[in-house]
Design the sequence.
């Protein structure tokens, strides 16, 4: 196996170990979101690939999907991550700006976004793009950290001398916005993740 793939996997395992040392099971949390998002149907879009933690769970579950991120560097890690497990063929990786997606109207039946909302400087511009590319009868699933989850992320990032970004728009506010656009919305919450499901 390529050296770069192995090195990336070692970094992935170190990251998971760091999170586990603070009591956060990254895999368990992603699986929680995936289970609550089901059933997933039709063309699937993951918004915000990051380092590919949720993309890996989607691929492991047998889904083929399109995934985009604004950062080519971050998505590069994700590609290597999926390649290590022989699953990189399950995803169509794209570099996109969520505020101005290149996809045609109503292109996707399911849109998933995990732990991205708090990074967005113009969240409603991105949400409007999700609405535009979502098919009639489609489902939008947005997940982000609970207050406890954000507090834990702050601790983890502080341990590395960094600071965790956190925007001002809450998931419940997005739910109200989507309800105003005619979506049927529901909220669920675990210890570290809350999940908004919005259906047309």
Sequence:
């Amino acid at each position: 196996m390529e050296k770069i793939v192995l090195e990336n996997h070692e970094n992935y395992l170190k990251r998971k170990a760091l999170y586990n040392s603070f009591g956060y099971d990254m895999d368990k949390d992603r699986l929680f979101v995936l289970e609550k998002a089901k059933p997933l149907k039709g063309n699937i879009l993951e918004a915000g690939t990051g380092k590919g933690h949720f993309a890996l769970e989607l691929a492991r579950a047998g889904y083929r999907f399109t995934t985009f991120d604004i950062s080519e560097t971050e998505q590069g890690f994700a590609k290597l991550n999926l390649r290590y497990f022989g699953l990189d063929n399950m995803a169509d990786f794209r570099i996109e700006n969520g505020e101005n997606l290149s996809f045609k109207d109503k292109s996707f039946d399911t849109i998933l976004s995990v732990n991205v909302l708090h990074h967005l400087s113009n969240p409603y511009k991105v949400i409007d793009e999700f609405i535009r590319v979502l098919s009639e009868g489609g489902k939008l699933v947005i997940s982000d950290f609970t207050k406890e989850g954000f507090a834990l992320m702050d601790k983890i990032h502080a341990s590395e001398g960094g600071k965790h970004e956190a925007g001002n728009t809450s998931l419940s506010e997005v739910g109200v916005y989507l309800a105003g656009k005619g979506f049927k919305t529901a909220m669920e919450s675990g210890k570290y993740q809350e999940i908004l499901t919005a259906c047309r």
